[in-house]
Specification:
heterodimer; A: 153 residues; mainly alpha; 2 strands; elongated; B: 250 residues; alpha+beta; Glutaredoxin; 2 domains; 9 helices
């Protein structure tokens, strides 16, 4: 039972940590929509309408993920969605790196083209991998403390 | 199957379900309890994405486009549009994505104010991103072509089209043929094609770029970037959606 309790605490930290990540990435993007558009466009993957839709939706989806994680509502489903979104980011950064584009991921606001020597692909991918581990924990073991799931679930 | 092994099997299943419950996963046999929270969470995400997506689609290019009725003249690398009392200087590069956003966001508002004679806009056609296209030089070619569009009588529409068709930063940019074709499409007269292919205005663009980069009054955080906008000589923050109306109403 004590081990379960410990695992619950670890899960809770993962849940709140991931919520903080989504909040820190969603809010600056929502505050500067033009910059977000430029950042999404710099990946050079989507057609103009796709860039517009992704740039508009992404900040609010990130904030919604953060709120759901803070509440602990549908933790497992939200963790799956978080993992899928993170995998999409990993794919986006990887294709930019492989194609030799010089961009900033714009993960926490900012983004767009940078000078060739100023890219940080390794750090960006390592960071995303860390966030993926948080999501993976919650997919495997979504039980956490102070979660709406345990009250209305 | 004997009674003993059936009891054993049941005991194992219960133990497995208990482990799942401890992990926060409600076993299916126990009914759809987590289904409800999962449904709520997925619904929230879907609704957020849907509302934002529909808003984008509905607010896209609404209403009649504002037709420019002002006149434009070129001198060096600067195009002066309109003759209103408030002078707005816009420094932009045709390859700069943030400049495309500026045009998209404020283009119609500027056109309206120009049509109404409220403002004069001096478009400084600078090329600071020449190295970003492959081969380099698209920024200069595009700016030079835009200068050709002034005597051809199509600058306002041509300027807008260069941003509408802005190429990605990693590519070659629009070809000279395309730069000419857009002008022809918009009714460019005279020697527009020869002006574009003859690179007649490239030196003017280079000189304007050097002047802008060297001007300390245009620096933000120590360096010059695009888009940079001044109203009567003072830098303005174009992230503030009301910058132009504030300038007009004083």
């Amino acid at each position: 039972m004590r081990r379960d309790r410990l695992l619950d605490v670890v899960g809770t930290l993962a849940r709140l940590g991931l919520a903080a990540v989504w909040l820190a990435s969603g809010v600056p993007k929502a505050l500067d929509p033009d910059q977000t558009y430029v950042a999404v466009r710099a990946y050079d993957v989507l057609p103009p309408l796709g860039v517009e839709l992704v740039a508009a939706m992404l900040p609010w989806v990130e904030i919604a993920l953060a709120v759901l994680l803070l509440l602990g509502l549908g933790t497992r489903a939200v963790a799956v969605a978080s993992a899928l979104l993170l995998l999409a980011f990993v794919a986006g950064v990887t294709q930019a790196w492989v194609r030799g584009l010089s961009i900033d991921c714009g993960c926490f606001g900012g983004g767009g083209r940078v000078e060739p020597g100023q890219t940080a692909y390794v750090a960006e991918l390592a960071r995303d991998t860390g966030f993926l581990l948080l999501a993976a924990w919650l997919v495997v073991r979504p039980r956490t403390l102070l979660a709406a799931d345990t009250r209305i679930g | 199957m004997g009674g003993a092994s059936r009891a054993e099997k049941r005991r194992k299943q219960e133990a497995a379900e208990a482990r799942l419950r401890a992990a926060g996963i409600t076993p299916k046999a126990q009914g759809g309890d987590t289904k409800r929270t999962t449904f709520i969470a997925v619904a929230v995400l879907a609704v957020v994405a849907l509302v934002v997506g529909v808003t984008v689609l509905l607010t896209r290019d609404t209403g009649e486009p504002v037709v420019p009725t002002y006149t434009a003249t070129a001198e060096g690398g600067v195009v002066t549009a309109g003759s209103g009392p408030i002078v707005v200087d816009v420094y932009s590069d045709y390859l700069c994505p943030a400049c495309e956003r500026f045009e998209e966001r404020y283009g119609e508002e500027l056109t309206t104010a120009l049509n109404n004679g409220q403002i004069t806009v001096r478009y400084h056609l600078v090329a600071i991103l020449d190295e970003r296209s492959d081969p380099p030089g698209y920024s200069t070619r595009a700016a030079a072509a835009a200068l050709c569009s002034v005597p051809a009588g199509i600058f306002p529409a041509y300027h807008e089209r260069l941003f509408d068709e802005q190429p990605s930063e990693s590519g070659a940019g629009l070809s000279d043929e395309r730069l000419v074709a857009i002008g022809t499409e918009l009714g460019a007269g005279g020697d527009f094609a020869a002006c574009v292919t003859g690179e007649a205005n490239e030196d003017a663009v280079t000189a304007e770029t050097e002047a802008a980069v060297a001007n300390p009054a245009l620096r933000r955080n120590g360096s010059f970037g695009t888009p940079t906008v001044t109203v009567d000589g003072a830098l303005v923050e174009v992230n503030d959606p009301g910058w132009l109306q504030n300038a007009i109403t004083g």
